[in-house]
Amino acid sequence: MKKIQIFDSTLRDGSQGEGISYSVQDKLNIVRALDELGVSFIEAGNPGSNPKDMEFFQEAKKLTLTNSKLVAFGSTRRKDISCAEDANLQSLLSAETDVVCIFGKTWDFQVTEILHATLDENLEMIEDTVSYLKSKGKEVIFDAEHFFTGFQANKEYALKALEAAVKGGASCLVLCETKGGAMPMECYNATKIVTETFCKNESAPSRENAESVLVDTNGSTPLRENASTNPRENANGVLVDRNGKTVSVGIHTHNDSGLAVANSLLAVEAGATHVQGVLLGFGERTGNANLSTIIADLQLKLGCQCIPEENMKKLTPICKRIAEITNIALPAGLPFVGSSAFAHKAGMHIDAVIKNPFAYEHITPESVGNERVFLMSEVAGRSMIIEKVQKFDKSITKSSPIVQEIVKKVKDLEHDGYQFEGADASFEILVRKSIGKYQPFFNLHYYKTSGEFPRFADDQSAFAQVKLDVEGKAVITAGDGDGPVNALDSALRKALVEFYPSVSQIHLTDYKVRVLDGKSATASRVRVLIESSDGTDTWATMGVSSDVMEASYIALVDSFEYKLIKDLERKFAKIL
Length: 576
Fold this sequence. Notes:
Layout: E1 2-3, E2 5-8, H1 24-37, E3 41-43, H2 51-60, E4 69-75, H3 87-95, E5 99-105, H4 108-115, H5 119-135, E6 139-145, H6 147-153, H7 155-168, E7 172-177, H8 184-199, E8 206-208, E9 214-216, E10 248-253, H9 260-269, E11 274-277, H10 291-301, E12 304-305, H11 315-326, E13 343-344, H12 347-355, E14 373-374, H13 382-389, H14 401-416, H15 424-435, E15 443-451, E16 462-470, E17 473-481, H16 484-497, E18 507-515, E19 526-533, E20 538-545, H17 548-575
Parallel strand pairs: 1-12, 2-3, 2-11, 3-4, 4-5, 5-6, 6-7, 7-10, 10-11, 13-14
Antiparallel strand pairs: 8-9, 15-16, 16-17, 18-19, 19-20
């Protein structure tokens, strides 16, 4: 099985994405999550770029990692100064990581027009920097910035830049598709040439002559286009650095053309054994290669090992954890780990999947820690209803009269504006009510809301009052908040938490309102979708009304009751 090193750059490249900002504690938590997943390297930032990164590296020294190596990131030394005088390199050393990743220019245009250096000066900067860090006991990964663009413009110079890194002692040559514009075969062909140039297994052992030029056993230079681009090989004809360690080739792609994953996979096909990216794919511009997709593709489809086999089932939960730390919603459509990755809606598809999931699923959702979802809608059919209902009553079959009643209710409600595919928790409560498996936790007498403008405080602009009947007791409470929905949510919690303490765990993660009939203007019916979480599970509920507060109340009640139902089921399960 081909071993692939996974190099995650969530904390460096990923943090450059729009709206992404991590605290030191956030970064430490992400390191723990990535180490648990089992990636080979975690690139944690540039200690010389800002005080936060330097503080992080100081705190990271206290971590004990099981699977991953922490990596500090920086550039080659500046022009016209020594490595010992370069502040960036000294900050890299102060991070005290065993591995450092250095980026250097491989595109001649970047060298002359951006660095304002000569081509030879740039080669010296690369070799000097890598050599200096190696002399300090560091493993050095070389990021060949703009490699594919440079390779197209000046192939010979791009390869010389790689040679300089290997001469300095780099353990890995990472080919960076920095602008994100290369097509898949460009990445494949260039990576193939690099692996053949730097990692080719010659039939005859090779060695270096007194001038350090690669020669074969007869003292002749190998039959290659440019022997000077080939650093020293070991007795097996495998490229090694000056300490005799094997050199590998890596790939680093961006998604500006929507091809980051494809380009990475083709680079592996061409011989790369090291893949860089961001676990969830975010990053500067349109993002980086999505490692959650790449890991699953390589390990489940292409026979490679990226992380420990037993950790594949952690892929989805850890992606969710990192999304939560990053304060973003995990995109539903992400392959393998998104909530829609194994979601089925069409009635015929659902019927087939219930009979045999292989009919429409390329892998089992459990293999990546995800789960199968059947989306309820007017096109879902009775098979979908049966699958849901049998969770609560195994005796109900497709021919049971109650199934047709539920199908009719769903179609009537969707005609009125409900859309249960986005609110599975509300659909579950509907099913429970239909089959007699529902007991309300409270009943409403009334609620009142009012707002003030200008607002009387930064986070307070509305009041709400509710009167509920809870376990036979009349409870009246009031709440305030940032808007009437927030105030109503607050009042409901106050009324319920005395009887059901777990209500305090619920927090709203998303709130959406959609106008269903724009022609009716302010009298239009609206659909309110609320997404809630208790820190472990996430669920969505829905309400529809011509009154946005009533729609919000309906969705809020379903959210609270869904949580309380699940708590009750867990309690009974433990007893049994």
